[in-house]
Write a structure and sequence with these properties.
The chain is an alpha+beta fold. The chain contains four helices and nine strands; from the N terminus they run E-H-E-H-E-E-H-E-E-E-E-H-E. Strands 1, 2, 3, 4, 5, 6, 7, 8 and 9 form a nine-stranded antiparallel beta sheet that branches. The radius of gyration is 16 Å and the shape is globular.
């Protein structure tokens, strides 16, 4: 089933709830487009989290669940998901997020250990809940950093804040 990962862990490391002012359909479409745009984008760690590593580059890789696997959100997969949401919004959207870290020094990029997260977004009328599970890695970015990044990017799509923490 598209959007649902059968093996999602029971115990989340972080749960954050948001009130929303828009329909679940519009919110889900915006979230999918947001994480697809984040894929492969190079950001400095200082831009997205309180960093203990100077001159560190962060690259995100998001995938959406489909049964017992995750599909990388490229343009084709994104269109497939958007079409499914257009027909009927999903109750749950599960994402896998690999966060790659690279330290820049002396003009060279040195890879550091990566973080691997799973996110479960649950949608109800007027609110959304995000459960974050840290699978493995050094936690250079905390679960709330990932949530804040996505929420801030989603809110940038609109003229007013559509997601507010409750």
């Amino acid at each position: 089933m598209l959007g649902f990962y059968e093996g999602f862990p029971v115990n989340a490391h972080k749960i954050i709830r948001f009130a929303t002012l828009i329909s679940n359909k519009k919110l889900q479409q915006t979230i999918v487009q947001t994480v697809q745009k984040l894929n492969g984008e190079k950001l400095s760690l200082e831009e997205v989290a309180e960093s203990s590593i100077p001159a560190c580059i962060v690259i995100f890789e998001f995938g959406i669940a489909e049964g017992d696997t995750f599909n990388y959100l490229d343009l084709v997969e994104t269109q497939k998901v958007l079409e499914k949401i257009r027909k009927a919004p999903l109750q749950i959207m599960d994402f896998f997020c690999a966060i790659r870290y690279y330290k820049k020094q002396n003009g060279k990029k040195t890879p550091l250990k990566f973080d691997y997260y799973m996110l479960r977004l649950t949608f109800n009328a007027g609110f959304m809940e995000i459960n974050v599970f840290h699978e493995r890695g050094p936690r250079h970015m905390l679960p709330e950093d990932i949530v804040n990044l996505i929420v801030n990017k989603v809110n940038e799509f609109f003229s007013r804040k559509v997601l507010k923490a409750v």
